[in-house]
What we know:
Elements: H1 2-6, H2 11-55, H3 57-62, H4 66-115, H5 121-141
Helix pairs in contact: 2-4, 4-5
Amino acid sequence: xxxxxxxxxxxxxxxxxxxxxxxxxxxxxxxxxxxxxxxxxxxxxxxxxxxxxxxxxxxxxxxxxxxxxxxxxxxxxxxxxxxxxxxxxxxxxxxxxxxxxxxxxxxxxxxxxxxxxxxxxxxxxxxxxxxxxxxxxxxxxx
Length: 142
């Protein structure tokens, strides 16, 4: 609100950036939920296999199945790691997109403040501060 009060000419650009941020969040939320579900689903077999190997270690040694158990454990760990890497990559991508939108908003605010000849300095500083914290707020809201 302080941004629009100090620079009323920013209303169309602020609306456009808010719409862009809303669309980005709407596209990100279902994908992030599915990715988090995949991570939790693939973590279950890792724990289950570990517990089975610990409980049945005598049988594994007796029947010579240590190699098979180790290869299965590595396969399950690799699948879980892939899901976690995908989840972290998705989070980094979304954070970068929000940073770019926040940077565009900060650029628009600063250009409008510089171009205004009758800008109030206190309100201009407040609007710049709000533009800087816009990215953190958007991340927390999503």
